[in-house]
From TrEMBL:
Encoding gene (name): nadD
Involved pathway(s): Cofactor biosynthesis; NAD(+) biosynthesis; deamido-NAD(+) from nicotinate D-ribonucleotide: step 1/1
A biological process from GO: NAD+ biosynthetic process
Enzyme class: transferase
Species in which this protein is naturally found: Odoribacter laneus YIT 12061
Catalytic activity: nicotinate beta-D-ribonucleotide + ATP + H(+) = deamido-NAD(+) + diphosphate
Source organism phylogeny: Bacteria, Pseudomonadati, Bacteroidota, Bacteroidia, Bacteroidales
GO MF term set: ATP binding; nicotinate-nucleotide adenylyltransferase activity
Protein name: Probable nicotinate-nucleotide adenylyltransferase
The Cytidyltransferase-like domain, residue ranges: 4-161
Length: 186
C-alpha cells in the first residue's frame, strides 16, 4: 500500500514527518508519497511559496527516509488541483499500486465538499490522523480508518510567523530542510 499525503507543505515540518513515520511503523503503508499541491481549492494562495521551492524543501526533508518520496504530479495538472483527478492519474500511471489517502481530521470535516468525495470514499482507503481542536467522530464510512498518530500542534502558518519574527524554528522542522526553509521564507 502506498500512502498519499497531500499538502501544501508550506513549509514541511516535523509534524508531517511524525505522522508519516507513525503510519509506516504501524504498517498501514509500505511507502508514503508527499504530494505537493500547487493550489488547494479550499485555500487562498496569499502566503504560498512557489511550488518548486516547496518541492525542494520536501525533497531535502525526505532525503534520509527511503520509504518517503516527494511527488510533483500535480504541478502539470489543471488548477486548482482536485484529489480525484490526481488519484485517477496516479492509478493510470501505476496500475499495480494500491493507493490510500492520508488526511487530517480538519480535512475530513470538509470531506463532503470535495469533488467526487463519494467516489473517493468508495474506492480508496482513507487514513485520518487527529488534529488539535477538531472532532469528527460523527463522520464515518467503510473505507475510513482513524489512526492514533501523535497529535501535532505544529502548523506551517505558525512556523512562517516565527520566521518573520526571527524566532528559532530548528526544533519544528526537519534539520535537512532548515536552511532552505529559513532562506525561502525570509
Amino acid at each position: 500500500m502506498t500512502g498519499l499525503f497531500f499538502g501544501s507543505f508550506n513549509p514541511i515540518h516535523n509534524g508531517h514527518l511524525n505522522i508519516a513515520e507513525y503510519i509506516l511503523q504501524q504498517q498501514y503503508c509500505e511507502e508514503i508519497w508527499f504530494i505537493i499541491s500547487p493550489q488547494n481549492p479550499f485555500k487562498q494562495e496569499i502566503h504560498l511559496l512557489e511550488e518548486n521551492l516547496r518541492l525542494k524543501m520536501v525533497e531535502a526533508a525526505l532525503n534520509a527516509h527511503p520509504q518517503l518520496k516527494a511527488c510533483n504530479i500535480e504541478f502539470n495538472m489543471p488548477r486548482p488541483s482536485y484529489t480525484i483527478d490526481t488519484l485517477q492519474k496516479l492509478s493510470n500511471l501505476y496500475p499495480d499500486k494500491k493507493f490510500a489517502l492520508i488526511i487530517g481530521e480538519d480535512n475530513l470535516k470538509n470531506f463532503h465538499l470535495w469533488r467526487e468525495h463519494e467516489r473517493i470514499a468508495a474506492t480508496y482507503l482513507i487514513y485520518v490522523y487527529p488534529r488539535p481542536s477538531v472532532h469528527t467522530t460523527n463522520i464515518y464510512f467503510p473505507n475510513l480508518v482513524r489512526i492514533k498518530a501523535p497529535l501535532s500542534k505544529i502548523s506551517s502558518t505558525e512556523i512562517r510567523q516565527m520566521i518573520r519574527e526571527g524566532k528559532d524554528i530548528s526544533a519544528l522542522v526537519p534539520s535537512a530542510a532548515l536552511k532552505l526553509i529559513e532562506t525561502y521564507y525570509l
